[in-house]
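Dear Dr. H.,

I hope your travels went smoothly. While you were away I took the liberty of generating a structure for the chain from your last submission, since the lab meeting agenda had it listed for discussion. I wanted you to have the full record in hand beforehand rather than looking at slides cold. The sequence, exactly as received, is reproduced here:
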Amino acid sequence: QVQLVESGGGLVQAGGSLRLSCAASGIIFSTNIMAWYRQAPGKQRELVAAVSGDGNTNYAESVKGRFTISRDNAMNTVSLQMNNLNPEDTAIYYCNAKNLFGRSVWGQGTQVTVSS
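The corresponding predicted structure, in token form, is as follows:
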């Protein structure tokens, strides 16, 4: 079965931290680009962070220095460590896997709410 299962979302105060995790199954995980996207109310879905199979990463400018994406190919998981959160980080966060053919699989989304 092809699926991405996310965990770790929730409510946190400004300045706090959360760690999101995504477990993948039914894909050749090591060759997929894994990424986290988010969509805030009234805004377009945006790329937050991505990591290639060999560990290369890229981040949205708004999260550089605060968020870290990592993957464990042996465990078929990708994580997003989010530090120094602010209310502007409030959004639904989605896990995404893109294979060598450019086809994507999406997780169900998990809500992250940051209060002031």
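Two observations you may find useful: The CA atoms of residues 4 and 24 lie 5 Å apart. The chain is about 0% helix and 55% strand.

With kind regards,
E. W.
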